[in-house]
Every structure is written in structure tokens, then in C-alpha cells.
Amino acid sequence: MPPPDPATFRAAMANLPTGVTIVTASGPDGPAGATANAVCSLSIEPMLMLACLDRGSRTLLAVQAADRFGVSVLHKGQEPIARSFATKAPVAEKWAGVEWSERDGVPAIDDALVSLACDLRDVLAAGDHVIVTGEVTALETTEGDPLVFHGGVFRPLD
After folding, report:
1. Which alpha helices (DSSP H) does the chain contain, by range?
2. 47: Cβ contacts below 8 Å, ≥ 6 apart
3. Which domains are present in the chain?
């Protein structure tokens, strides 16, 4: 059997439902952020997070320069934020109209289900993405239903 092609792989992985997050960092021109669904807890002792960012991501550059990053887990009403941060739009355009605040030294999306701040630990090259890990330094949670990405579309968990 021949190996799968990238389009087949992408279609197959669309069947794996994932939470939708915004990975953030403080950049030289203000906050930076990108939508990411390849994000997960990595360890409890110590508390570590893992996030995968595109090699060409401005957010990745900001994370590396700041030596810190944040993760905001979006709720079902925050799809417009997820869409905006998934683009290559100018940084200021992505953040326009988005309510956010700095928490423990990183930008965080207000009203997110979970907001984490992390000290950067590892930066690992992995194909067309880079894996970053970070030690959790702050955590805030609220109640609500998550925004989920499945089958190539954003959807509530219903």
C-alpha cells in the first residue's frame, strides 16, 4: 500500500475533534496571537503545556523572544476570534475589537474558558511546525461550553 498523501492525511485528521485555543505572547509591537488546535497538557508534575505553531508564525517569534506564552481556551461564542487569529492578517487587525488583558505577563483573551501563562521550556522542530513546551505559572478558569474544531469547521460541543 502506498503511503498517504498530505490531503488524505489532513482529511483523516479532520475527524479528530479538538479544542480551539489562541496561543499568545507579548511582542515588540504589542500582543501576538494565533489560533491553535494542537495544544494539550503535557505533564502534571511539573505542570507543562505543549503547543504547536507554524514555522512561519509571527506568534512563534514572539513566544521565543518573550520566553513566555499564554493559552486561552475558547468557548462556543468565540468563533469570530478563532477565525480572525487563524489568518495572516496584521497583528493589530487580529486584536482589533478583541477584549483581552495581560495576565502573569502574557496576553489573555477575556472571557475564555481557561487562561494559562507559561514560561517557555523547549522549542523543538517538527516538520512544518515547531513544538513549544512551557511550565504553567498561572491559571484561570470559568464555566461554559468549549468551541470545538471537527470536520474542518468550528462547532459547539452539543
Report:
1. 6-13, 58-66, 79-85, 91-95
2. 41, 135, 136
3. 6-150 (2.30.110.10)
